[in-house]
Amino acid sequence: MSKIQRVALAVGIVLLDSMVFFIPLTALFMGYVIVANPPWFKDFLIKLDGPGQE
Prior knowledge:
The chain has three helices and no strands. By secondary structure, the chain is mainly α.
């Protein structure tokens, strides 16, 4: 394998890795919570608020 092929392979791997792992997971999760409105998330927010804090 020549040096040019090695560099091209390395650049290809870095580009592929950047495309695959650049998914904005936090934004996807927030979109899911807004659209689906799961009951476990509401329970989590109620627990986070704590008892007797009004």
